[in-house]
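Fig. S4 source data, part A: sequence.
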Amino acid sequence: MKTKLCAVCNNSAPKYKCPTCKIEYCSAKCFKDHKSMCVPPVQSTQQKPSNDVTVSKEDEEEEEHRLKEADLQKLTKSKRVQQMLAYPEIRALMETVNSNSNPVQVIHALRQRPDFEQLVQAMLEATSE
């Protein structure tokens, strides 16, 4: 069984959860480190989808932009992406994106950060090769 680790330092088991974005962390120090980069979840004004199986134009566009298996393989093999993901801060930012109900909006906000923008550029370069 895989043990969860603190999303900030990636060293200890998490004991706490950020009240704003819900990432898990292990100590007050990690919370302080995370607090400066925390992005609150975006409240969606969209209605819950019904049980109808109709595919909306938005869903089609989202599927068009979703990474294919070959692109995911390129990301896992990229040395530059691997190096950037070695930093706990970058992993914490990715956890913030993954745990948010509106990840696209979070990504747009995080792209103002130079470290996150470098990761985005590294990922784009890796998938365009």
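Fig. S4 source data, part B ends here. The two ends are 35 Å apart (CA to CA).
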